[in-house]
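We emphasize that the prediction below concerns an isolated chain of 356 residues; any contacts that depend on oligomerization or on bound cofactors are therefore not represented. The input was used exactly as deposited, without trimming of termini.
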Amino acid sequence: MDTTHRVIVGDSRDLSAVADESVELVVTSPPYPMIELWDDLFVDHDADIADALEAGDGREAFDAMHAQLDRVWDELSRVLTDGGIACINVGDATRTVDGSFRVYPNHARILEAFEERGFDPLPDILWRKPANSAAKFMGSGMIPPNAYVTLEHEYVLIFRKGGESRSFEAGADCRYEAAYFWEERNRWFTDVWTDVRGQLQSLESDGDDLRDRSAAYPLEIPYRLISMYSTYGDTVLDPFWGTGTTSLAAMCAGRESIGCELESEFVSLFDERIADVPELSRSVARTRLESHRSFVDDREDAGSDLEYRAEHYDMPVMTKMERDISLYAVEGVESTADGYRLEHARFESNGSGSLG
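Result of the prediction step, given as a token string:
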């Protein structure tokens, strides 16, 4: 199985290089309005944002920043197929503007924007970020009433384009080979993720703090979402590509991908890391198989037999829908004019690995 992975250097408010209804899944994490890290980016798109912030009008700045993201959501509505899914990872912002501290609810504003474009909201996910400090308060410290809760979670907002789910032929291989294990389903399809591991990327750049501007999320987040909401043969789009975490996840998951990124330096750094993808994909596959073996051992130790067996792996599974599960690893990487072409093979291993 071969997959292709395109990287477009440009502005995601114009995705004209991506055809209408050619993408099955979007997984992305946009710049978060009202987080100071992203002020310059938003101001570059709309100088009135700087005026609003200087005037102490946080609400006007918030709305103007989201107006820029709205142009990207317009493009996603165009390129997603009917029944396609958009997963938007975003955090709310806390900020003091003109002496007043408040929360700016980015997730609520994006939810509203997608509904206005005809998307159906699906149940969302909260994932808890690793805390950088033992302090759990902001404001007045140990005395009431002027302390504030610390934000330690982000949202994965999930939307479906149109009113109906995608349809497939009965028994379609692309779905059944892309199945997840029963225990993965139970862990992934809960609305709170507390087990997501930390940052994978090691990003270095001479004379420029790209790490601060990358805001990359852990690999496990896009990998899970891609496994949950796409099949083999699908294309995954990330309009805020950054360090390419979504593309890495798509490569490991055996899906195709398209990324759009303003900064060409990010793409250059990704070129230096692509050689690690074959081992990364094997590590991801090993982790899933070893985790399932451990689950089987625990069930058998408890006296419970599993009725079905995986066709491609020497192990039992809980349901008949899992029998054709096929995990793929990258065997070869070839650079192309606009990205990469990867060769995948079904993975089998008795080793262990680590995702993230």
